[in-house]
């Protein structure tokens, strides 16, 4: 099935990581006819990532999701360029493999700022356009660590931020349903990307796999397909939901 996002203007935050979930989503969305905007910290990297997806119907913009003015400027650039904003994928995120007693105030702010504050600011930046258009879809990238507590890569503050995203997502779904704007989340498990890449010894991998019913790590494309479902009309009657994309890890 192709063309699920035909001519839809889709912003993906944190999409410049070469092997990341956002980049995989950008490719898939492009294949489905979307106009894809990669919004990441560095303008050149965003542009390169967008060009790598396609020289046509893509755009790279600079956006620090922790900075409200930066989010608003990115949204305006997109709206000026394409006249609308249909989909926002809140995908930017960072991890810090710390334990509770090791987390400093600075650590806490860094991690919660990118995932949770970033989700709020970027959503606030696009929602006025979606309300005006009378429709849109927002998908938030939480994590299985919101449900189970931290894993080996994200710390407790990461779990807290990702759990906060689930609450914020539901609250926004309630508030904006009347405007035909759907807000949903995904809770990926252990996905092989730059956040996790290179850090998995065979021993750790074997240990992890015992907790994954599907007996494999995820890849970015697994999550991208979840984004596609929640961003497109395939999920037209779904809002305030969280889609588990973790091989069944959430059940442990
Ligand atoms: P990546 O590191 O590839 O992607 C994260 C991107 O976010 C990077 O390009 C990073 O840029 C960017 N970023 C960081 N801070 C900001 C900011 N302030 N504003 C805008 N962009 C920013 O990792 P993944 O693809 O693995 O992660 C994508 C999302 O999926 C994250 O939210 C992550 O928490 C979540 N997730 C990942 C899982 C996994 O196992 N990989 C599991 C569950 C959830 P830069 O590289 O320049 O810092």
UniProtKB/TrEMBL annotation:
GO terms for molecular function: 3-oxoacyl-[acyl-carrier-protein] reductase (NADPH) activity. It holds the Pfam family adh_short_C2. The keyword Oxidoreductase applies. The keyword Oxidoreductase applies. This is 3-oxoacyl-[acyl-carrier-protein] reductase FabG. One of its GO terms (biological process) is fatty acid elongation. It is an enzyme of class 1 (oxidoreductase). Transmembrane segments: none annotated. Its EC number is 1.1.1.100. Belongs to the short-chain dehydrogenases/reductases (SDR) family. Keywords: Oxidoreductase. InterPro entries: NAD(P)-bd_dom_sf, Sc_DH/Rdtase_CS, SDR_fam. The lineage of its organism: Bacteria, Pseudomonadati, Pseudomonadota, Gammaproteobacteria, Oceanospirillales.
């Amino acid at each position: 099935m192709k063309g699920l996002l035909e001519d839809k203007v889709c912003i993906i935050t944190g999409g410049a990581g070469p092997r990341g979930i956002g980049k995989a989503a950008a490719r898939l969305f492009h294949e489905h006819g979307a106009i894809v905007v990669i919004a990441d910290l560095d303008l050149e990297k965003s542009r390169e990532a967008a060009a790598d997806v396609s020289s046509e119907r893509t755009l790279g913009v600079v956006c620090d999701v922790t900075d409200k003015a930066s989010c608003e400027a990115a949204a305006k650039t997109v709206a000026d360029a394409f006249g609308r904003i249909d989909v926002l994928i809140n995908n930017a995120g960072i991890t810090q493999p710390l334990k509770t007693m090791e987390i400093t105030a600075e650590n806490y702010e860094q991690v919660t700022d990118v995932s949770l504050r970033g989700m709020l600011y970027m959503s606030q930046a696009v929602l006025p356009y979606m309300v005006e258009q009378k429709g849109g879809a927002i998908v938030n990238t939480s994590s299985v660590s919101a449900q189970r507590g931290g894993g080996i890569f994200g710390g407790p503050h990461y779990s807290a931020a990702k759990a906060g995203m689930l609450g914020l997502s539901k609250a926004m779904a309630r508030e904006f349903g009347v405007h035909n704007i759907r807000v949903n989340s995904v809770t990926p498990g252990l996905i092989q990307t730059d956040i996790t890449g290179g850090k998995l010894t065979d021993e750790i991998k074997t240990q992890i796999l015992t907790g994954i019913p599907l007996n494999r790590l995820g890849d970015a494309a697994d999550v991208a397909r979840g984004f596609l479902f929640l961003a497109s009309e395939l999920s037209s009657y779904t809002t305030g939901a969280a889609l588990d994309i973790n091989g069944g890890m959430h059940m442990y």
